[in-house]
Amino acid sequence: MNTAEEKFQQAHKNPLLQRLAQLALLLAGAALIGLVVVQGWQVFARYVLNDSPAWSEPVSLLLLCTTMSLAAAAGVHSQSHFSFQLLAEAMPTRLRRVVVAIRHLLVAALGTSLAVWSWQLLVDGWAIDQAGIALPQSAAYAPLMIGGALMSVFALAHLHAVWRTDARSA
To answer: Is 169 left (phi over 0), alpha (psi -120 to 50) or beta?
Structure first.
């Protein structure tokens, strides 16, 4: 990213969205630490104590989904997610803005789809208890729903910044 592009990115950072992304990253990190602890206990209990806890698998799945979805949302906010920036950088400014806008729209659509479908799965399985733990079977879909919604919000904020800059330069 060149200096003008870095200035563009810094000028359009919303403090509220920055705090939300930091919170998502903090929760993702805490979930990752929790995942390591739970899996460590699982291995110790299974191979040393010969008494594998029934709760470790569903808790691990919930922590893994939390880590993955919230870290992905923070990646959308910081624009450190997977993208093909070399092609866009080689384009003229107007065309580059169109490509960047399309990229943000696609990420927002993906996040919205993830949030909506995860919500449907969460509601569908809420009344079914998981074996080994007092959590609904669909509990792992809650962080996916939240992460998808955050991805959409962050992508739409970036899209708004692209449009606002495009309107100023016109």
So the answer is: alpha
Cβ atoms of 153 and 10 within 8 Å: the answer is no
Tokens at 78, concatenated: 């910081």
Burial 59-98 (b: 16+ CB within 10 A, else e): bbebbbbbbbbbbbbbbbbebebeeeeeebeeeeeeebbe
Does the global pTM surpass 0.90? no
Q: Is 4 exposed, middle or buried (0-12, 13-18, 19+ CB in 10 A)?
A: exposed
DSSP H stretches of helix in the chain: 3-11, 15-47, 56-78, 85-89, 93-124, 141-169
Cβ atoms 65, 122 nearer than 8 A: no
Give tens-digit pLDDT for 3-50.
445 544 554 578 899 999 999 999 999 999 999 999 999 999 999 998
The domain limits of the chain are 13-169
In total, the chain counts a number of residues equal to 170
Q: Exposed, middle or buried: residue 110 (CB in 10 Å: 0-12, 13-18, 19+)?
A: middle
